[in-house]
Each structure stands twice: as C-alpha cells, then as structure tokens.
C-alpha cells in the first residue's frame, strides 16, 4: 500500500466523522484517521479505559503517568474532558451513545460479520473491548488494507476466523474502495483513484453490487 | 477539536415530549427534582405520560403539578406517601401506580443506561415483590429477573453543567439524576449554571456529557427549590 | 409508653451500635436511637438517598436545600462525608456493607418475618428502601413499641400483613423487652425495668424461650 | 461522631491473603495498578491464586511478577497481549485463562459489588462468547446470563484516601478500581497519600469508604508507576 493510498483511505474515513458525534477509534489505522479530521469538527472522542473527550497524544516529556488511552498511548485532556470507571465507559458503548466505532479487521464478510480478535493457534491475546464496540455502536466502520500481507482478500463472503460480532459492520474503508453493507448485501460506494473495478473484483472474495451511476473517486 | 455544544432553550427542549411518552424525573424529595423542566412540561401539556420518579414530591410541587393537571397515566415509583394527590388518584384508579423497591428501581434504571436487558437479584423473594417476575436460577440459587427500565426522556437537575452536558450535582441532589440521564433515549438537563469548558475538573465530572442531549440554563431558581418549611 | 420506657428502649438499642460499624437508621424511632450513641463511637451513618457519613440534623436557618436524609430531614456533613447516586447507595445495602439496619415495624414474627410497609386498604405509600434494608443488612434490628396504639401485640407467631422481608430480623427492641430471633425461635434476652414476665407473655402473641439465668434489666 | 479508622500496614493488610484466594487487581495498563500491594503479595507468596484483572500488565510489571513467581493458577481478564509471560503460560496450559469482553468483565464485577446475582445482555450473541452461558429471554428477546464476579480480595490503587477509605482516583487510573473495591469480601487500598478527614470534598469522593476494609499509605512511588518509556 502506497503511503499515498493509505493517506487517501484515512482521509476518506475521516470525512464520515461529523460534528456532534461521539466516536471510538480502535488501535492502529482507526486512530490514524484522527489526523485527517478538521480541527473545527466538534467531536467527543471516547476511550474504553474511561475517558470522554480524549485530547492529543502527549509528547513524551509532557506525558501524565495516569493518562493513557485504551491503546496505551499517553494522551492529554481538552477543555471538557471527563474521566469515569470502566463500567460507565462501556455503558456509553452498550447503550448506543457511540455514534461511530471505527475498527481494524482480519476479515469482514459481506453480511457484516467481523473477525478481528483471534487467529486460533496463532494469536489469541483476548478480545478486550472489541466485541462491544463492534456490536453496539450506532455505526460500525472497518478500516483496513484491502488485502493481507500476502495479498489475500480480507473481504469475504463468509468469515473463517472466530467472529467479533455478527452482522454489525455498516461500512468498510480500504485503500482500494468504500463499501456499505446493506440489506441487499455488499455495495460498492466509492473507488480509489487508480484502482480499476476489475482489480477490485479480483481482490475481493465476495460479490458486491456496483451502482449504475459513476462511482465517486477518493 | 472542540466538544459538541448542546445548549437549548427550555421550550425547545421540552417540545420533543409528546402524548404517551415515558419520562424519568430525577430527584429524591426536593433535592435534584427538575422543577423548571416539569413546569415547562405542564405548560406544554402532553398527556397520558408514564412518569418514573423515586417519589411523587409533595403537594404543590413537581410531580404534583403533573398529577393535578391530569397529564399522568402511570407512575413508576418507590414511595408516594408525602403526596396526598398521588395517593388519592391511585386509590380512585385514576392513575396506575407501579411500586418498585427503591434500590431495584435505581438498578433497573442503571442497567438500562448500561445497555443491558435486565439483572437477577434475590431482593423480595418470599414477598409480594416477586409476583409476576420470571424466576432465574444462578449457580443453583433462586433469583428474580428484573427488567431494564428505559424511558423516552429523562429530565435531570444539575448544579453545574458545561455546554457538552458534563454534569456536577450538589450533595444529596445527585440521587437518581445520573442514572436516569443514562437510561433515556433523550436526556434533557436543567443546570443552575452552565460553566465554560474546563471549569469542571475532569475527575470531578459526575456524569459525562456523552449521555446528555440538551442542556438548559436556569436563570433564577424559583422558591420551590428552597428549604421546605414545615 | 412512658417517655422513660421509651428512652430506655432507645438507649438499649444504641448500646448495640459499636465502633467500626456502618449503620442505617429508619425513620422514626430508629433515628431517635442516634441521640443515645456516645459521640466517641466511630460509626458511619448511611442514608438511602446517597450519603455515607450523615451528620447532625441542621437547625432550620442552617439547612442546605440539597442536603436531606432519606426521611426528608435537613442534615449536615461531617469530616469524611461522601455523596453518591442511588444505585451506589443500594450497592452498599445489597452487598452486605451495612453492619446494622434498624427499622420500625407494624408486625414482627417469631421466625424473623417483618411487616412494615403496607396495610392493605389503609396504608400503601410504597416500600421505599425498606425491603432491601430488611433483607440485606448483616444484622437487622427492629425497634418499636411492644403493642400498637390499641394495645394489641405486634410480636406474633406469624405476620398477617404483607411482608417486607422473610426471616431476616435478628433482634427486637421494645419498651418491654429485647428478643433475639435464633435458630430455636424467639428468645427473650432482656426485660425492661418494671416489666414482669407475666405482662410480657400476655402482650406477646408468640411463644418465646426464657433463659434459665437471671434476665438482664434495661 | 467520627468515622472508623481503617489505616493498616502493608504487611498486615496483605497477610490475610492465603493460598487459593481470588484476588482482584485494579488498573488498566500502568495507571491504577496497585504495584506495591502486588509486590507485597509476591513477598508473602501465597500460591494457587485466581487473579482478576483487565490485563496482565507488561513484562517485569505487576501481574508479571506473580506469574513469574508461579503464584497464579487462573487469570480472568480481557486482554493479555502485552505480556509474553502470560501468553506463554497460557499456551503451555500452565495457567488457566478466562477471557471476558472488557465491558462485560467490568459489569460482572460491578453487579457483584451491587449485591446482585447476575445480569442479562445480548453482548456476544452469535459469537464464541455465548458458549456455556445460560440463555435468558427478556421481553421475548434472547439474552445471555452473565454471572456476578466476586473475589475474596480486591487490591486497589488510589491517588488519595482518607482513613475511612474514601477514595479519589487520578485521570484514567480510575478504570476498574472502584468496581473491584465494591466486589470483594475484603478491599485493601494503597493510596499515594492519606489525607485528613474533610480534605476530599464530599461531592468529589469517587468511592465511599463504606466499601473499604484497609488503607495503606505509600511512602514513595517506585519507578514502575512512572511513564513507560518505549
């Protein structure tokens, strides 16, 4: 993935973060989306370890030993930050107060199934807060490279890995395309500059609908 | 990145409440009761309300205004002994009253606010409280299923709020307010003062604005908020 | 009930409030017990509406409009008072952190059943927090006049009124006697000065064991 | 009437923990982890412990000391990815690991602390999380019974405490600490400072001392509490 394609993917995902939202960004690519959100957008960032209104990542010399986000990064406060315990933090998640949860993925299926926490026999550190984030946010977005490090598709007709949540993903952002998961199945919404429909079909292991009109590029 | 601004006028905030709505009201006695929001609810006049509140206040106060105005179809509460109107309307079957043990009421609301479906407890086993409730055994011990209690609206009184809806409560005026603020589809706060962002220390926010939808500033506190003279 | 007998009952109940305890006192007689607890006793008073470390009742001119106890009395804080919400307040009760709950009663049965919240057709204001206080404190004490206003016994072999809690009362304080409810049933522990065993038996509608040794007087 | 005084030495407080005990440890990463209490637990050396903690810390920190010292039989946790020792011992079946979704872990602990038997939620329906759990329907909707998670002991880190055990937590060091303090038969607190009664404003106490059994003051903070250099 060229850094250019990655940047465009991050920027495209950032465009769906709107003023008024409360948002949780997963570790990795989802967190990187933040740098593409306009500073004037009025958003409340939530972190599972008990913060609403997460501020910028702190410079090491300014880090507060008691102030990390759920990914372990030292962060700062903003005017209006609030701290609370882990039960309240997940009350925010489960009661539907997250307008958007952006997550990474190993696999996403065309029915909205998500697998992002376990590879049996290889990787099983525990699910952390992923299950609740994937099941209970009002909108669940997945942001990931279109293929894995070996070039294999990550968008499938069915997940083979243990599920994080069943049927809750609404939108997928990759370096090649934006898809929505709808009642009619996987629908292509936008396609990356320089990517052809044929390439996309070759690297996507699920059928998807292609709209009749011109596809927006990003 | 600023936080969203949820300030609203009282009229606009309450206008979302229509006939037949379920409405949680914070407060335990006078402290924490959102009298100004309730008065606006009386002024706008939606009817057939289900009101959820720890108590029914006293004569000529809060819930009593709604009862006297005929807006209440059902009251879910733990104790109404200080409100003769509520007792009379209940005895005349003019309103339905569902009594819930106080801590079970608090927890049914909290469980709703935490996005759960219900909880299991042994409170009330062997008493009339168990009537009509599903039995669920946990590790072989008998329990009762208590269902999550949600509402369309929560009306909440805070001492201080910021524009995002971070809340700070005074003394015993906290009671049901933060729980109800979590458990409603739309949470409307009246605050004695809206303070600038950052005035509330992040550790001393009692309820995150993530749960709040509208914040109304009270310009002055009517007498009903004061010490009750008996 | 002479004010003298009442004072001795209150004083006797106060003697069971020991340093280190967290205690909830119900409205009426239970709250009056407090004035007989030594000021040096280190006790945490709990109030259902969200206070641990309840202070003295406030003089009207010093009342804080936001600071009442569960009975509606204006109270004050002490060094170390904490406020919390109603869910936390009852977490203290249900999780067994109350060492003692003192309650009033309409009826108590020799098996520990308590009726204090409803008289069908006459009095049904709701149970408030009584059920949880009566079921979950580590020790549940009832303090009441030995007979009702018509002179009828309130200690019965079985309650006829709707129960508050089933079998949880440990001790009963009246103006005539102190009883424990034990595995062997109702046991007389102490008898009021000037009360005879015959009087007590005549005004108690349940059989009770009388210890062989001399009964302490209070 | 003064409040009870629960101050204790660290050795005496931890000496109550014997072989086979279940022990909750506060903290999410470094913030809120009671490192000094854990170090004393290592020094005193009870074995066959069930440890309940959000995560397993990192190498040479907190939970890792207990694992390296062979004191842990079972770990109930949401994520251990930053601790290679924990991953290795799990893969060798030298310790049992029960993974619980983070918010379900928090809530199972809270529900225990609130004196309930369990709760019903739809989290994990259709995933491996539902394996072995009792199904309970609420209002016709399928749910899973999550049982209350109690422990014999909770070890908690607070920024400030008074002698009664009223607690104040810093920033994100709150996390599981107040929940665990509520859910154990005996709750032991280490505080960076024990402050005089009345220093903590009653509204700003994060956890009432009613839940606390012993308070230990830390004289100095070892380096492990500091910012992690990566």
CATH architecture of chain B: 3-Layer(aba) Sandwich
Which CATH class of chain A applies here? Alpha Beta
Task: Classify the helix fraction of chain B into a percent range.
Answer: 10-25%
CATH topology of chain A: Glutaconate Coenzyme A-transferase
Measure the end-to-end span of chain A. 15 Å
* CATH class wording of chain B: Alpha Beta
Cα-to-Cα separation, first versus last residue of chain B: 50 Å
If you average the pLDDT of chain A, what whole number results? 96
Give Rg of chain A in angstroms: 17 Å
Strand content of chain B: 25-35%
Please tell me what the overall shape of chain B is.
Answer: globular
Q: Return the structural class of chain B.
A: alpha/beta
What's the oligomerization state? heterotetramer
Give a brief description:
The complex is a heterotetramer, with two copies of chain A (218 residues) and two copies of chain B (230 residues). Chain A has 218 residues and is an alpha/beta fold.
């Amino acid at each position: 993935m060229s850094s250019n394609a990655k940047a465009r993917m991050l920027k495209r995902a950032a465009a769906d973060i709107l003023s008024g939202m409360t948002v949780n960004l997963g570790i990795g690519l989802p967190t990187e989306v933040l740098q593409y959100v306009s500073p004037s957008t009025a958003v409340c960032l939530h972190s599972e370890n008990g913060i609403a209104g997460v501020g910028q990542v702190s410079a090491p010399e300014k880090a507060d030993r008691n102030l990390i986000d759920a990914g372990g990064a030292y962060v700062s406060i903003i005017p209006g930050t609030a701290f609370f315990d882990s039960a309240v933090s997940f009350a925010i998640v489960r009661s539907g107060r997250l307008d958007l949860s952006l997550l990474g993925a190993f696999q996403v299926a065309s029915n909205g199934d998500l697998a992002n926490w376990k590879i049996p026999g290889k990787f099983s550190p525990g699910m952390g807060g992923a299950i609740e984030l994937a099941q209970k946010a009002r909108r669940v977005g997945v942001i990931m490279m279109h293929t894995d490090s070996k070039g294999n598709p990550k968008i499938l007709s069915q997940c083979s890995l243990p599920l994080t949540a069943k049927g809750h993903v609404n939108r997928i952002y990759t370096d090649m395309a934006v898809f929505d998961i709808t009642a009619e199945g996987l629908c292509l919404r936008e396609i990356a500059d320089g990517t052809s429909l044929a390439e996309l079909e070759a690297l996507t292991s699920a059928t998807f609908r292609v709209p009749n009109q011109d596809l927006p590029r990003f | 990145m600023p936080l969203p601004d949820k300030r609203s006028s009282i009229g606009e905030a309450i206008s979302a409440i229509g006939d037949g709505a379920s409405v949680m009201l914070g407060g335990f006695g006078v402290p924490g009761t959102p009298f100004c929001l309730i008065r606006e609810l009386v002024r706008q006049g939606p009817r057939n309300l289900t009101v959820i509140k720890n108590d029914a206040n006293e004569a000529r106060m809060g819930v009593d205004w709604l009862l006297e105005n005929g807006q209440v179809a059902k009251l879910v509460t733990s104790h109404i002994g200080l409100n003769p109107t509520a007792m009379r309307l209940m005895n005349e079957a003019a309103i339905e009253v569902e009594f819930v043990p106080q801590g079970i009421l608090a927890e049914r609301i909290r469980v709703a606010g935490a996005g759960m479906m219900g909880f299991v407890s042994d409170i009330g086993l062997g008493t009339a409280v168990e009537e009509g409730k599903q039995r669920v055994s946990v590790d072989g011990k008998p329990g009762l299923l208590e269902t999550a209690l949600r509402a369309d609206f929560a009306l909440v009184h805070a001492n201080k709020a910021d524009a995002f809806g971070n809340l700070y409560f005074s003394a015993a005026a906290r009671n049901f307010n933060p729980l109800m603020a979590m458990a409603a589809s739309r949470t409307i706060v009246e605050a004695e003062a809206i303070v600038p962002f950052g005035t509330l220390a992040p550790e001393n926010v009692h309820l995150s604005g993530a749960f709040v939808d509208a914040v109304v500033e009270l310009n002055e506190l009517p007498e009903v908020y004061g010490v009750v003279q008996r």
